[in-house]
Predict the structure.
Amino acid sequence: MCKTLASLLQPSLLLSKLATVTRCLHGSPALEGKIKFIKQGIDINKYTLRPLRLIKSGGRGYDGRIWTHGVGGGHRQNYRMVDFKRVGPKEGDPLVEKVLSVRYDPCRSADIAVVAGGEHKRYILASQNMKTGDLIKTSGKLTRMAVRAAEGDAHPVGSLPLGTIVHNVEIFPGEGGKFARAAGTSAQLMRKVDERCILRLPSKREISVSQECMVTVGRVSNIDHNKKPIGKAGRSRWLGIRPQSGLWHRKTGYNGRKIKAAKPVKVYAKKPSKKPLRHTFTV
């Protein structure tokens, strides 16, 4: 009898043990998208012009689950390390770089340019009229009088005159450009309030950033990117876009025209706190 009860109680005890098992997944927002290179033994902190092999994720995250639907397949691509940080001297003459070539990048809609200054070469986003042989300047000096910047030059947003068209906009000084990086996009400097600058994004949303944030003058290259017809379903598969389900989907309030009041200015004054590196799940 005791053996029978023991045999009956063992599965329940096993289930109770399994119920308290925790699974820890280590993931950092700063490393999302870079794990695929780290697993290949590539030092992501060492800059290189060599195209890196890009392993497709199929829309899956680090936990193996689908994060983004409609992604998968596509032509093999190589990743280029594009430098979104335009860092220049805050005193003295600006950094002058020469455009060696303007190239196609399969990992983004905009074109990229190879620039060289001193003993260093790097990839940057190409502006609309950038061509081989151009000289571009990068200055970190914040001036009282508005500077007369040419297309492709990078300056603190507080040094530019009102109405300037810019791209590769920083939201925190020294972190690199975050906004207006896609093909043909740009932001516009609307007004200055004390030590803050208000810019209007392509979505018509206005943001407030520090006057020390770096921006690049001009519009991003490849402005006719969205006007090229796909032509056939197969080309979408080449681009890694999977088709939607053939089932009928009822339209909701997400579809159709919307008339909404303008959103308030979004202020980027304080960096958000870092998320934890460990995610614990209880089964």
Observations:
- The radius of gyration is 25 Å.
- Residues 36-79 form a domain with the OB fold (Dihydrolipoamide Acetyltransferase, E2P) fold (CATH 2.40.50.140).
